[in-house]
Design brief:
Layout: H1 10-18, H2 21-49, H3 58-74, H4 76-83, H5 88-111, H6 116-144, H7 150-178, H8 183-205, H9 224-245, H10 247-276, H11 284-316, H12 318-337, H13 342-370, H14 373-401, H15 409-429
Helix pairs in contact: 2-3, 2-6, 2-7, 2-8, 3-6, 3-14, 4-6, 4-9, 5-6, 5-8, 7-11, 9-14, 10-11, 10-13, 10-14, 10-15, 11-12, 11-13, 12-13, 12-15
Length: about 450
């Protein structure tokens, strides 16, 4: 415990963390893994949206969203029980090795022009393994950091991981720009992702097999089937607690799910505009540049929300800020989205990124402050399923109603109306229960 004496400033806590050898090794494994995640995500987008040999459709984009997010919905709640049975260092070591092999296999599938369904199946395996890797990285932190530094570690590691994913994606965008179009470019990006996953596996190998836990011998391990059944029952109990005993959190979760659905509709519209409207369909490089700019603007909005939200909630309260964000999104979507031209759309990407993350931060805070500790983990598991499932559902809806050009007045106005209904409905719920105090500090955005 002596390492923490006199450490009060954030810089001091970071310095104390970086003096811990095992923390540095775990952090290095995280950064290499999430850097590769960014490259893989761009390779998936490049294959689906910017391959010259195929015309992208909202349906193809919906499939890509499913590949990226369904593992978080389907496997996420069950990752914890499995991580308590398997050695976490081995998960990081062999999980990244498995992703290396899967990426190389997927690259080979791209080169031999397999059907798109086969590509999506291989990519789904990569993202399925990723869910266990991310959960293992978080679960392992208490094994390498003493309790006094754990809060700082939970802030530093996921934040740097997000930065690594962003840098990986940005680097992959630049590589894709200099490569000629075609399956070779997509295969090259998958090869780069594989190289990164191999490096993450080597970083994990520097740690001892038992360093990251779980600790053995304290209790007899349960049968796997029993664990899975109990996890399912726990999710049902968490959902029941939300509906019957914790109305403020359930209303906030309903609001963030509706906002996430609207954001998903607009995100698919943005992809279609960048691919087919902002640049000639045959000019892949121009489309990639527009998409990179739009995603950078949205990311800047997310980070701006981390700065603005604490200031705003001190003035209007956490629930009030959630209402304001949903209402602002309704106005911004209708005011900027109907132009279908680059400058208003890029501006909307920034502003909607800001208000969407403001809704997310507010909901995190409301759940953490209004749900009993005994149910909080299960409620956040339900939250994770709703948050990611809403984006997949939105992409599926756009596949039915949006044209490949992205010029869809119905999607823009529908999203605006849904944002407005969310702001009004959630605002009305605040009259039925006492609001969260203004002093409730919003939690920082998660990775």
């Amino acid at each position: 415990m002596s390492i923490t004496r006199g450490v009060s400033a954030p810089q001091g806590r970071v310095a104390a963390l970086l003096r811990l050898r095992d923390f540095r090794r775990l952090l290095g494994t995280r950064l290499l893994s999430q850097l590769s995640d960014g490259v893989f995500q761009v390779s998936l987008a490049s294959y689906v949206v910017f391959s010259p040999e195929r015309q992208p459709t909202p349906g193809a984009i919906a499939s890509a969203f499913a590949v990226l997010l369904l593992p978080f919905c389907l496997f996420g709640p069950f990752a914890g029980p499995l991580l308590d049975r398997w050695r976490r260092r081995q998960i990081l070591l062999y999980g990244n090795l498995l992703r290396l092999a899967l990426c190389l296999g997927t690259a080979a599938l791209v080169l031999i022009h397999v059907p798109t369904a086969a590509f999506f199946g291989a990519a789904l395996l990569v993202t399925g393994v990723n869910r266990f890797i991310l959960a293992g990285l978080s679960a392992a932190l208490p094994q390498v950091v003493e309790p006094a530094l754990l809060v700082g570690a939970n802030a530093v590691a996921p934040t740097l991981g997000t930065v690594a994913t962003t840098l990986g994606g940005g680097s992959a965008f630049l590589v894709r720009l200099v490569l000629p179009g075609g399956p070779q470019a997509n295969a090259a990006l998958l090869g780069l992702a594989a190289l990164g996953y191999g490096s993450a596996s080597l970083a994990a190998r520097t740690m001892g097999p038992d360093l990251l836990g779980p600790e053995r011998g304290r209790q007899a391990p349960q049968r796997l089937r029993t664990l899975l059944v109990e996890t399912t029952r726990g999710l049902v109990a968490g959902l029941r607690h939300l509906v019957h005993d914790c109305r403020p959190a359930s209303y906030a979760l309903a609001a963030v799910t509706a906002c996430r659905f609207s954001y998903g509709l607009l995100l698919v519209l943005l992809l279609m505009l960048c691919r087919n409207s902002f640049a000639p369909p045959g000019d892949q490089s121009a489309g990639i540049r527009w998409l990179g700019l739009a995603l950078a603007a949205s990311g800047a909005g997310f980070f701006s929300a981390a700065v603005i939200t604490p200031w705003a909630t001190r003035r209007v309260g956490v629930p009030g800020w959630l209402v304001c964000c949903a209402a602002l999104a309704a106005v911004l979507t209708a005011a900027l989205g109907l132009f279908f031209t680059p400058v208003p759309i890029i501006t909307a990407a920034y502003l909607l990124g800001l208000v969407s993350q403001g809704v997310k931060i507010s909901t995190d805070t409301l759940v953490q402050t209004s749900v009993e500790d005994a149910f909080r983990g299960r409620v956040f598991a339900v939250y994770d399923v709703l948050f990611n499932g809403a984006l997949v559902a939105a992409a599926a809806v756009t596949a039915l109603v949006m044209s490949p050009s992205g010029h869809s007045v119905a999607v823009v106005l529908g999203s605006s109306v849904l944002y407005a209904i969310t702001a009004l409905a959630y605002g009305l719920t605040l009259r039925q229960a006492p609001p969260v105090p203004h002093s409730a500090a919003p939690v920082p955005p998660d990775a």
